[in-house]
């Protein structure tokens, strides 16, 4: 039994070495720096995916200086879509996306097996990179050992690079720093989207992984400037669905070292960002999209529209900061 286990380990090491020799340069050279909106999925009144309105939004996003789009992230309501719908949305986005933009597709599922299968389907549909959220249903058992094993197997099997995704507000689970450090050495894992907002943690991750060429993306516009200050290379920001140019402007100010101007713009984005994320969530994001000329529309049940009181508060968050 020991000999068999040792042989299996040697085979896996050989496979990773071969993968590294064939693909490491391509994976490590994939520059994911910049701003990405995690795009919303428009639905009809009967809650079918509205591909026409999706296309309309994509045409408008093509005119903004995004590095790319994240498709089937948390704001895309991916847990409420069928596997077929998830893949079809990625295909439609790929058809419309300019060639110089990256398509980052969310492929996370609860089991490692399903994540591997979904990742391959997303790659076949045109994804340039995968965003893989932490499995969380059995969060009590999702320790570093389990998560390292999960991500290593997914990344070994993937034909395109992988970005880790830690979003504790939705999963109740922070991807542990020690797991990130180990996974940063994998030749097919190029970075992390961290939505937790703990700047000390983000700084530590950057410090511990920068020798690997590992890239960290802020998971929210609310702490985008702070993340840039400690070494993040960009952000996946829900608010960019609404104020895309302004979020890109903030990123450019940070990259250019114009911190005083960046700080003033960051101040004005904090309240609207909080409103469309942790305060009111996807229904608020979709409502704000309507105000700014995009198709947001209804959410898929059980998500409900905002109450009248919440709608008024959402408007105040934007108008009091000069956006409406």
Automatic annotation (TrEMBL):
EC number(s) reported in the record: 4.1.3.16
Q: What quaternary structure, including any partners, is listed in this protein's UniProt entry? A: Homotetramer.
Question: Which residues act catalytically here?
Answer: 165 (proton donor/acceptor), 193 (schiff-base intermediate with substrate)
What reaction is this protein's catalytic activity? (4S)-4-hydroxy-2-oxoglutarate = glyoxylate + pyruvate; (4R)-4-hydroxy-2-oxoglutarate = glyoxylate + pyruvate
Its cellular-component GO annotations read: mitochondrion
This entry's Gene Ontology molecular function terms read: (R,S)-4-hydroxy-2-oxoglutarate aldolase activity; 4-hydroxy-tetrahydrodipicolinate synthase activity
Name of the protein described by the UniProt record = 4-hydroxy-2-oxoglutarate aldolase, mitochondrial
Q: Name one GO biological process term.
A: glyoxylate catabolic process
Q: Which domain of life is it from?
A: Eukaryota
Protein function: Catalyzes the final step in the metabolic pathway of hydroxyproline.
Q: Which PANTHER family match?
A: 4-HYDROXY-2-OXOGLUTARATE ALDOLASE, MITOCHONDRIAL (PTHR12128:SF66), DIHYDRODIPICOLINATE SYNTHASE (PTHR12128)
Q: Which keywords annotate this record? A: Lyase, Schiff base
Cited InterPro entries: Aldolase_TIM, DapA-like, Schiff_base-form_aldolases_AS
UniProt organism field: Cyprinus carpio
Broad EC category: lyase
Give the family this protein belongs to, as stated in its UniProt record.
Belongs to the DapA family.
Residues that bind pyruvate, according to the entry? 236
């Amino acid at each position: 039994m020991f000999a068999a286990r040792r042989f299996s380990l040697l085979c896996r090491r050989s496979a990773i070495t071969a993968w590294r020799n064939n693909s490491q340069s391509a994976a490590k050279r994939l520059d994911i720096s910049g701003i990405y909106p995690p795009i919303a999925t428009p639905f009809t009144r009967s809650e079918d995916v509205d591909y026409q309105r999706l296309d309309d939004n994509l045409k408008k996003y093509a005119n903004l200086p995004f590095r790319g789009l994240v498709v089937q992230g948390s704001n895309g309501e991916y847990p409420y879509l069928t596997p077929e719908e998830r893949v079809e949305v990625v295909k439609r986005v790929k058809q419309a996306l300019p060639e110089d933009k990256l398509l980052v597709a969310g492929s996370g599922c609860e089991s490692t097996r399903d994540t591997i299968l979904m990742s391959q389907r997303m790659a076949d549909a045109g994804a340039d990179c995968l965003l893989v959220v932490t499995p969380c249903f059995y969060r009590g058992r999702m320790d570093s050992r389990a998560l390292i094993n999960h991500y290593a197997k997914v990344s070994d099997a993937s034909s395109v690079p992988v970005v880790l995704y830690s979003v504790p507000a939705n999963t109740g689970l922070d991807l542990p720093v020690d797991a990130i450090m180990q996974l940063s050495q994998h030749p097919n894992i190029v970075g992390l989207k961290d939505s937790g907002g703990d700047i000390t943690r983000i700084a530590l991750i950057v410090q511990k992984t920068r020798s690997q060429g590992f890239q960290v993306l802020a998971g929210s516009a609310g702490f985008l400037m702070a993340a840039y200050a400690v070494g993040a290379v960009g952000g996946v920001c829900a608010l960019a669905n609404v104020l895309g140019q302004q979020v890109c402007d903030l990123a450019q100010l940070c990259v250019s070292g114009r911190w005083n101007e960046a700080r003033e713009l960051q101040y004005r984005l904090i309240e609207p960002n909080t409103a469309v994320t942790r305060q009111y969530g996807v229904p608020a994001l979709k409502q704000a999209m309507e105000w700014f000329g995009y198709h947001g529309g209804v959410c898929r049940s059980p998500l409900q529209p905002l109450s009248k009181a919440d709608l008024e508060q959402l408007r105040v968050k934007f108008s009091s900061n000069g956006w409406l």
